[in-house]
Specification:
This protein has 430 residues and is of the alpha/beta class. It has helices spanning 27-38, 58-66, 86-93, 112-125, 198-202, 215-225, 252-260, 267-276, 284-295, 344-353, 390-393, 400-429, and strands at 18-23, 47-51, 100-103, 106-110, 132-134, 137-142, 149-153, 156-165, 188-190, 208-211, 230-234, 239-240, 281-282, 299-303, 306-312, 315-320, 325-333, 371-373, 379-384. The strands form four sheets. Strands 1, 2, 5, 6, 7, 8, 18 and 19 form an eight-stranded mixed beta sheet that branches. The longest helix is centred in the C-terminal third of the chain and has 30 residues, at 400-429. Bound molecules: flavin-adenine dinucleotide.
Amino acid sequence: MTVNRPDTGRTSSGPEPYEYVIVGGGVHGTCLANYLLAEGGHAQREICLVDLREQLLASFATRARQCGMRTLRSTYVHHIDTEPFSLESFAEGAHREAELVSTENYPNRPTLELFVDHARNVINRRDIGECHFQSKVTGVTRSETGDRLDVQTDSGTLEARRVVLAVGLGSPRTVPAWGRSLPDDAPLAHVWDDDFSPATAAEFAGPTFVVGGGITAAQPACSLSEHTDVTLLSRHDLDIELTEADPYWINWRHVEQEIHTLPSGSKARLDRIRAARNDGTIPPYVERRLDEARDCRDLEVRRGEITSTAATDDGLFVRFDDGTTAANAQVVLATGVGPVPEHPLVEAVAESLSLERGADGFPVLDDRTLAWRRTDGSRSAVSVSGALAEPSVGPFARNIVGARRVAERLLASRTEAASESASSALKGRS
Ligand SMILES: Cc1cc2nc3c(=O)[nH]c(=O)nc-3n(C[C@H](O)[C@H](O)[C@H](O)COP(=O)(O)OP(=O)(O)OC[C@H]3O[C@@H](n4cnc5c(N)ncnc54)[C@H](O)[C@@H]3O)c2cc1C
């Protein structure tokens, strides 16, 4: 079954394939769709934004709320719109300037609610919802004619000229060995599990251990400590950094000098990027929140690890690496996500279209156009955005600003392809 125009109530424009099928309607997919509509001159009917969730951006908003995030770590110029000051103007128009929170030695940062409301405003203003097709993409193959891509979804096949994978950060379910054989109903959760509820966790009668040493552990530890007895358990001393990487990594020129000069697909690129990223750190304003919670004796910060757990009728019996134990406990993991190159769709697409993968399985992209290279070195019609694009976009690839960087290259490559085909047509005539 070919679903050229999915039956979702959206405008139909005949049998033409989509110009772009974007897989993933999170921050990246939605931002890319916005750029293609606003600056690429595309109509909604030319773009299909496939996401299994009912609402665009739901994955980000849910995860952020689940981990007790109040404000973004990035500044007010980082959002899904094309104009840098769009979010600031939105805040002023809605008399919500107070939600642009001042930060020492850094521009203001929006509250989570302001960021999400602004994004919804952009989605409505540009009718991006019309591009949304709620389904799960299971594979991408070459069409029978060879000039298009067939995108397989749970609801049929979509035809596209180009496909962008914007599937997010990777699977959240990275459970340490000591938690893998616990029964399903044991009080062990990952802060980004779809069914993790901070409200339910806050009602737990026994002690709560939040495992992790970065911002995604510190924020829920603070929030939960308003309701229950919490220990933040980190393997290392807490590291304080304001941003995810030095802001000069936002600029293409710096990324080109530091990353693109290293061989494509190399481990050296990943090492450089990992050294530049401040992963597992917390910003100073979250450190202050932790200190306040500690002062009120609601929260303990402890250095150590869990070595074993056992389920009991009243919770978990937990043993720590210093030999101490805790009974009747619940454990909330904030231990990051699995590697995004292991996303099943990434594996499937690489295999079916013979696309090249480099160190740690990352796609090998053409740095200039961000097209995923085939194993024969040619450029395919598949691109990637988000964490998957890190080896070409650099340490901020997964962040909001990374989506803007990808959009710029996608739009530029489209213009380049159009002028290449115009000049070959002229040559053909002469
Ligand atoms: C709690 C939190 C706070 C953050 N704060 C900041 C911040 O302040 N500033 C900043 O710049 N960055 C921040 N980030 C990093 C980054 O901006 C976010 O992770 C952002 O959500 C990444 O966008 P994304 O589109 O890559 O992934 P997501 O927003 O997770 O979207 C991926 C989408 O792909 C869909 N998908 C996956 N597979 C398929 C499939 N096979 N078929 C169809 N759909 C599929 C998913 O349903 C999902 O909706 C934060 C991240 C988190 C988790």
